[in-house]
Amino acid sequence: MASLLLEPSSHSTTKPSFFSPKLHYNVSKFYAFPSKSTVFPTLSSTPTTTTTTITHSFPSCAGIDSPSPIQEPDPIMELGLDPTRDRRRVVRVAWEKLVRWSRSLRSKSNTDVLQRTNKVVVLGGGSFGTAMAAHVANRKDQLEVVMLIRDPQVCSSINERHRNCNYFPDHLLPENVVATTDAKYALRDADYCLHAVPVQFSAAFLDSVADYVDPGLPFISLSKGLELNTLRTMAQIIPQALKNPRQPFVALSGPSFALELMNKLPTAMVVASKDKKLANAVQQLLASNHLRISTSSDVTGVEIAGALKNVLAIAAGIVEGMNLGNNSMAALVSQGCSEIRWLATKMGAKATTITGLSGTGDIMLTCFVNLSRNRTVGVRLGSGEKLEDILNSMNQVAEGVSTAGAVIALAQKYNVKMPVLTAVARIIDNELTPKKAVYELMSLPQETPQLEFAMVKPG
Fold first, then answer.
1. Are strands 144-148 and 177-180 parallel, antiparallel or unpaired?
2. What is the model's pLDDT at position 74?
3. Which GO terms fall under biological process for this protein (predicted)?
4. Tens digits of per-residue pLDDT, 429-457?
């Protein structure tokens, strides 16, 4: 945009030395707001008499004084333009449009679902089941939320003290949350069911309560993982255990720690269902001013990402426990994301689901934050503790431990190479030490540069 000339300008009054080059700038090229009457000269490398030239001379080694630069008026200031003010105006207008759009959609949103809902049953009394029970109960004071719990002590704590003594002893639950050990009472006349039983125990539990489940009761699965022996997801376990292939099903997933949900911190999740109307209904039931709910039809993608991220979190924890550094952590997690995407897409999932909120979003939360149970298992493994001792000291289920073996079986079924997740399964089976696993991963051939760890892309 500027012509750098070594010969003197026609405006210069002092002959420059060899060490005093002149800088000439074509002023007319710098401004994008000419009036209609303004005529700009044709641009060229040689200054013309019609082009305003600013001359700047650098001091020479010979000590020749340089002339003062010619002071030219600033056309932007002459036109009364303020770039900062204009930029702020553009940002303000864009934000106001976004706010108006949001208000318009909220005014048109259908709240009939919440108004028509009278009873929600929650299966399981763990941390996330409790957090979701409290969240739904806060949506409507007249809504009856019943938690079906095995432990009579926890049941009494919720009914008498409005607290879950095992997981949230310091959090007061809404008064419309009640607990019971009676499956028939809990499931009677329920409009929605939140399933929060760990995956490995779900089939047996559902089989025991199947007689009390209405065939049209929508199940919203909060459980993440794969059944160890059958490789089934919750979308397969629930209808098969209830002996009803038409049982309405929704998968709920996304980056969401139960503690933060209980504290009403901003959270975003995804509900996935083959039935678009059902997904929209669950969205209306759960969405609030601190919980955003997106909808998806990709049930496979949401469930596979939710299951495999637990295994990857164990790997991330191992890296942390071994103090391998941030470079190693970034390499491992990005490789794990690729492996999850390869398997999920082979199973029919959409790649955009894996890179979205229920995929990458959940992976980031689980791999990098200390509240993650699976990451904690990995940290302790990397520090040298035995898996048996770790699990015996925990009061919650780390789904990644049982899911790891199922993931590898699934990868073999779909012919997908998964070095990181396979290494985790080997460590859990006590067939490989964390140190040996790292060495083996770093020693993999590097013949395919476009893929991490030189694994052949599946398919």
1. parallel
2. 58
3. carbohydrate metabolic process; glycerol-3-phosphate catabolic process; phospholipid biosynthetic process
4. 999 999 999 988 888 887 554 444 434 34
- Residue that is written with structure tokens 């391998």 in the block: 324
Q: What is the pLDDT of residue 378?
A: 95
Of the listed 309, 386, 435, 436, which one is catalytic? 309
Of the candidates 289, 395, 300, the residue with the CA atom closest to the CA atom of residue 353: 300
Asked whether 363 and 314 are in contact (CB, 8 A), the reply is: no
Q: What are the residues facing 26 on neighbouring strands?
A: 53
184 is catalytic: no
- Residue 383: predicted pLDDT: 94
pLDDT in tens, 1-57: 444 444 444 444 444 444 444 444 444 444 444 444 444 444 444 444 444 444 444
Non-local CB neighbours of 259 within 8 Å, separated by 6+ positions: 127, 131, 168, 371
Q: What is the pTM of this model?
A: 0.77
Low-confidence ranges of the chain (pLDDT < 50): 1-64, 449-459
Cα–Cα distance between 67 and 290 in angstroms, integer? 65
What is the pLDDT, as a whole number, of residue 93?
87
**Opening angle at CA 216, ends 215 and 221, nearest 5:** 95
Long-range CB pairs of 431-434 (<8 Å, 24+ gap) are 434/318, 434/321, 434/322, 434/381, 434/382
CB 282 within 8 Å of CB 293: yes
Alpha-helical regions (H) of 287-386:
299-321, 326-346, 351-354, 362-368, 373-382
Between CA 410 and CA 231 the distance in angstroms is 7
Going by DSSP bridges, is the β-strand pair 192-195/219-221 parallel, antiparallel, or unpaired? parallel
The CA-atom distances, in angstroms, between 198 and each of 11, 66, 237, 414 are: 83, 81, 12, 25
CB 23 within 8 A of CB 4: yes
What structural domains and CATH numbers belong to the chain? 112-297 (3.40.50.720), 303-443 (1.10.1040.10)
Which has the closest alpha carbon to 385: 332, 420, 393, 402? 393
* Residues 200, 223: Cα–Cα separation, whole Å: 10
- Helix (H), strand (E), coil (C) string for 433-455: CHHHHHHHHHCCCCCCCCCHHHC
**What does the buried/exposed string (b/e) look like for 140-153 if buried means 16 or more CB atoms within 10 Å of the residue's CB?**
beebbbbbbbeeee
